[in-house]
Amino acid sequence: MCSNGYGHLKRDIAVISSILNQNSTIGVDVFCKSEHIKMARREINFNHGSQLNFHDDATKNEINWLKEETITSVQYDAWTEELKHHSILQKADLIVSDNHVLPLRVFPQTKLMGSFLWHDVNVVWNETTKRIAQEEHELIDIHRPDMLCLSGMAMPEVLNFTNPIKLPWYCTKYSQNNFSGNEEGILVTGGGTDLIKEFLVEFILKLNLLSPELKIYIDSKLDMLIGSNRNQNIEKFTFTFEAFSTLSAIVCRPGIGILTDCVRYNLPVIVINDGYNSEINNNALRVKELGIGISFESKLSMDIIVNETKHFLANKSQIDYCRNQLSNQQTDGAEIAAKYLINALI
């Protein structure tokens, strides 16, 4: 079950693919929003025929901890009932919830997956959300559910209050032999959120003025915003294996999805931390602590961020250090998670 953010879905796709590759007799039902279903079906090699089924009919009342209008007692109870009466969930041998604690309210055997709990990164605090968060804390305390989490990025609440199953990064290293050796430029991406897109547009244009020779690749949202206001060195990124192999670094808001790509492709990361919630703050801090990149608070002067980015990209010893730290990151977490879940079915 996952409907929040593309990074969550990418992780789930990796685990599901590994489950079905390891045991083709297992049937998997994925519950998420319709837009996430469309994205999943576009993923390369993610086609497992009748063994895999997508559903969006258990998410009508799903709460979104980042949107105040969806976190009401009425909607929380409605989603509980929606899950409780869903025939597929009733018959499931195993339920895995991505960051959401609510399914434990209905199915105590639920396993959790992710590196944070939604009620711990909530940005909407009122009497209702405080009560719901407290109820979820009590559920966690009662059941102490197993939670598949990313060892290097898991938040303290996961490590201290669940039974954490600590795993390496949910990816496989992209072989250095596949890199072109012609690193053209950097990727700037805001990921699935729109929170800092205007900030990143300003960053791109100023960096382009300061370093007009630098190739700057951008995601589709930023591409639409910038439009024709660019020179030939600002180009839309294709997000293919080959495209990643031409990069020297990635500038991003530190979601787990793009950070996983940094590990997969051994690309130093330049984090823009908007401080939106505690997960993003945690991820930005961990990037620095792991030595895989640098981090800037978005409230800093744009000139400082752009200049420091230019210096970082030109500092070979710092880039090499980050690459070395990235190469030391353990991977193949999706395969380990899949083995764990398969064993849980036995």
Topology:
Blueprint: H1 6-22, E1 28-31, H2 34-42, E2 52-55, H3 73-84, H4 87-91, E3 96-98, H5 103-106, E4 111-113, H6 127-143, E5 146-150, H7 156-161, E6 163-167, E7 185-189, H8 197-210, E8 215-218, H9 220-226, E9 234-236, H10 241-244, E10 247-252, H11 256-265, E11 269-273, H12 278-290, E12 293-297, H13 302-314, H14 316-327, H15 333-345
Parallel strand pairs: 1-2, 3-4, 4-5, 5-6, 7-8, 7-10, 8-9, 10-11, 11-12
Helix pairs in contact: 1-15, 8-9, 8-13
Produce a short descriptive summary.
The chain folds into 2 domains: 6-171 and 332-345, 3-Layer(aba) Sandwich (Rossmann fold); 176-327, Glycogen Phosphorylase B (Rossmann fold, 3-Layer(aba) Sandwich). Helix content is 45%, strand content 15%.
Describe the structure.
The chain is built from 15 helices and 12 strands. The chain has a 6-stranded parallel sheet with strand order 9-8-7-10-11-12, sandwiched between helices. Helices cover 45% and strands 15% of the residues. It has helices at 6-22, 34-42, 73-84, 87-91, 103-106, 127-143, 156-161, 197-210, 220-226, 241-244, 256-265, 278-290, 302-314, 316-327, 333-345, and strands spanning 28-31, 52-55, 96-98, 111-113, 146-150, 163-167, 185-189, 215-218, 234-236, 247-252, 269-273, 293-297. It has 346 residues and is an alpha/beta fold. The radius of gyration is 21 Å and the shape is globular. The protein has 2 domains: 6-171 and 332-345, Rossmann fold; 176-327, 3-Layer(aba) Sandwich (Rossmann fold).
